């Protein structure tokens, strides 16, 4: 019902667009200047990452960071600050050991993939079978039984390459593999494996599943190409503990004309348990937070309420986003914006949803030229945490950045530390987010 109502709200009139354009141009200048006044946003991000560490679901680190953010939101003067309980899965990485034992002994950098089961207590030692992709696996399916499948799927784009991380174990186990290893989902050689969530098929046996470094997989490939028989020993102690209590935490800048209309915006406060989760997603979370704080400081209060949300458990179960939708689905959301693509130059707001709002919003695209002359408000956008609300028919947006492939250097690896986040670019992201949220929450729309 709700979906039908929202989708039929297509006929909208945008009044005073011209007057607003010059007003927003002035506002953009103020926002840009304020966003670049110092590096306090970067300091705030670094404080969280340095004091609480990485923030995997189920960990004390995560809850300590959330408690800190709640306090800081109150200190900043946000309204209606709340912490909403969310039960989250609690996957424990444990220890990992991996070495090639034949034809010679070589220690392989390894990271268990999220949700992986452990090996037997004494580990597994088995011959490996290298495959290039799922088609290659099917071709070689008769040779798989009793072996460790090693997926050497080169990085093309994230969406395609991540399939081996997500489903590699189930596909290999179907043919009797005892474990599976993937080439880390990145185009970069830096000796560090990259982790991330994976899934099993309930009908098929669960086998240990891990990522290894690109350097290591290349060695295995070259030896395989020479016809060498390769054996690997691997031991993982990863497993699930009891579900744990976590929280979404949020605070508001209450709108001055339509306070019940919500524009929710944020990122995910959980991270993987390697590196510091700076690009993914502390930096973007802080960017949205500071964007709304900046609007407050400049007394730029839009018509509708902007709610900053730090969703929990995006990386390993999406319970934060799922439970947000369950709890808030009946509150009128004018739209939701997520920033979860790393702190790089902002180039667009990607938009999916109500066409009328889109047309009204796009009229102000030129206002962003101060941040980036080519900045776009374009079709197609959203985010994982706001996905459950988008499925209910709400408009979703994502801040789009220009990272080319750089993001994948840091993503879910030990490389994702605060020093990799550029202070000026973070401030640009804050300016773009503040402007997008202000204009979108302030749209003159008569339905
Ligand atoms: Zn993320």
In a nutshell, what does this entry contain?
The chain is α/β, with parallel strands linked by helices. The chain is 35% helix and 25% strand.
What would the principal axes of the Cα set say about the shape?
A: elongated
CATH fold name of the largest domain: Aminopeptidase
**Mean of residue pLDDT values:** 95
Helix content: 25-40%
The order of strands across the largest sheet is: 2-13-15-14-16-19-17-18
Quaternary: single chain
Give me the CATH architecture of the largest domain, please.
3-Layer(aba) Sandwich
CATH superfamily of the largest domain: Zn peptidases
CATH class descriptor of the largest domain: Alpha Beta
Number of helices: 13
Biggest sheet architecture: 8 strands, mixed
Structural class from helices and strands?
Answer: alpha/beta
How many beta-strand segments?
20
Uncertain parts: 1-13
Terminal Cα span: 18 Å
Query: Total domains, how many?
Result: 2
Alpha-carbon Rg, integer? 23 Å
Could you characterize what this model shows?
With 447 residues, the chain is of the alpha/beta class. The longest helix has 20 residues, at 278-297. Helix 10 links the parallel strand 17 and strand 18. Helices cover 35% and strands 25% of the residues. The chain has 2 domains: 2-90 and 243-446, 3-Layer(aba) Sandwich (Aminopeptidase); 94-240, Glucose Oxidase, domain 1, CATH 3.50.30.30. Helix 3 packs antiparallel against helix 4 and helix 8 packs across helix 13 (423-442). Mean pLDDT is 95; it is low at 1-13. The protein has an 8-stranded mixed sheet with strand order 2-13-15-14-16-19-17-18, sandwiched between helices. Strands 5-4-11-7-8-9-10-6 form an 8-stranded mixed sheet, with helices on both faces. It has 13 helices and 20 strands. The protein is elongated. The two termini are 18 Å apart. It has helices spanning 2-8, 17-35, 40-52, 60-76, 134-139, 158-173, 214-225, 278-297, 319-328, 355-362, 387-391, 407-410, 423-442; strands at residues 13-14, 79-88, 91-92, 96-102, 106-107, 110-112, 124-131, 148-151, 179-183, 209-212, 231-236, 239-240, 244-253, 258-268, 304-311, 333-338, 345-352, 376-379, 396-402, 445-446. Zinc ion is lined by residues 268, 280-281, 314, 340.
